[in-house]
Amino acid sequence: MSEGSRPHVLVTGGAGYIGSHTAVALHEAGFCPVLLDNLDNASIEAVSGVREICQEDLPFHQIDVRDGASLDKLFSDLYAQGTPLQGILHFAAHKAVGESVAQPARYASNNVGGLAVLLETAAKHGVNNVVFSSSCTVYGEPSQVPVSESAPFQTAESPYGWTKQACERVLTDHAQSLAGAHVALLRYFNPIGAHPSAIIGELPLGVPNNLIPYLTQTASGIRQKLTVFGNDYPTPDGTCVRDYLHVMDLAEAHVAALKWCKTQASTSSVVRAFNLGTGQGASVLEVIQTFERVTGQQVAHEIGGRRAGDVVAIWADPSRAQKELAWSTQRDLATSLQDAWRWQEKLGR
Ligand code: NAD
Ligand code: UDP
Question: Any catalytic annotation for residue 107?
């Protein structure tokens, strides 16, 4: 199918970790992803990687999502060339919890302000389908696991967490104000891994905060030792439990959510939250052991103190996404860790 005959969808943050993998999944599903990124936390090589995997010169625009004039022009140009946008997948945001504590206004401006500009532009151009990157961080420490979408929000632990709660509220109000708005709020659990080709993956800048990039960098010798943040939690082995899902499973969930938006009645407005996870929890020590087993690599690690603000144990009840989006994860933890390692090996030391 030529680019022109495919439904075009905007992927903000399309050069980033999850956006780039989703662009590949969208292309596979017959969409033309229009990538937009200001390259604040990404490299142009990710765009080349997506193009290489898709074997197509997909459109990329270096635009800041807060730049309303440039957005407006992009939407108009796509309309004028006969490929109006059919939907938006909004990934563009800052995502580092610690940084958000130091720079709360920057986070509010980019994450909440960026969404506001995007929604105003979308409404002006009649683009009503929006898929939003939210996070299980909105739940804080849940009183019950697995956590379902009806679990109450806790007071946000960080300015980053607050931006996700605030964006969900802005999107809910937006949907209520606009006839025919269809909004999917996707609450991700812990995305890990990389495209199996190892052409695209996660590119953490500096010292990683997240477990998997720290672990793979330790295995490859970039870091000396992984510190396990606490082993005195009330969990089976004392370490924290999370729900790790493969980034390609997450990418495919976005395709399912976009299709869900497109099948909603054109006159009714709807906003729906979906948990995206495997439904299984894994502890930090289980992750290390699984990684060592499937890759044959040793991970030097030691037990350290707890990290401030860590949730003890959280995993998803993904049954709503299974039922309403016909989506569930297809790759297990071992596969996700193998793909994460393949990507790290490609990056090298
Ligand atoms: P990422 O940093 O790799 O990707 C985000 C991309 O958005 C980057 O390429 C960055 O350059 C771009 N960007 C940021 N601000 C922009 C702006 N104003 N205009 C244009 N582009 C801008 O992050 P990711 O891991 O791919 O996360 C994508 C989304 O998913 C984010 O909204 C994040 O908060 C959310 N999320 C991520 C995780 C995770 O563990 N990675 C978990 C839950 C939710
Ligand atoms: N973690 C760890 N050592 C690290 C990084 C993370 O023990 O160097 C733990 C962390 O305490 C948490 C789990 O790994 O229990 C996942 O952490 P990550 O930052 O990847 O995700 P999040 O805490 O946001 O769910």
Answer: no
Q: Which helix (H) or strand (E) holds 215?
A: helix 211-219
For strand 244-246 and strand 60-62, is the pairing parallel, antiparallel, or unpaired? Answer: unpaired
For ligand 1, say whether the CB of 188 is within 6 Å of any of its atoms: yes
Q: What is the pLDDT along the chain (349 residues), one digit of tens a residue?
A: 566 689 999 999 999 999 999 999 999 999 999 999 999 999 999 999 999 999 999 999 999 999 999 999 999 999 999 999 999 999 999 999 989 999 999 999 999 999 999 999 999 999 999 999 999 999 999 999 999 999 999 999 899 999 999 999 999 999 999 999 999 999 999 999 999 999 999 988 889 999 999 999 999 999 999 999 999 999 999 999 999 999 999 999 999 999 999 999 888 999 999 999 999 999 999 999 999 999 999 999 999 999 988 999 999 999 999 999 999 999 999 999 999 999 999 998 6
User: pTM of this prediction?
Assistant: 0.98
Instruction: Report the distance separating Cα 193 and Cα 332, nearest Å.
Output: 11
Copy the structure tokens of residue 233. Answer: 């939690």
Nearest Cα to Cα of residue 38 among 87, 88, 106, 91: 91
How many Å lie between the centroid of ligand 1 and the Cα of residue 234? 32
Give the active site residue among 107, 139, 160, 233. Answer: 160
Q: What is the distance in A from the centroid of ligand 2 to the CA of 228?
A: 8
Ligand 1 atom 28: the closest Cα is on which residue? 91
Question: What Å distances lie between residue 70 and 12, 66, 76, 77, 290, CA to CA?
Answer: 13, 9, 10, 10, 46
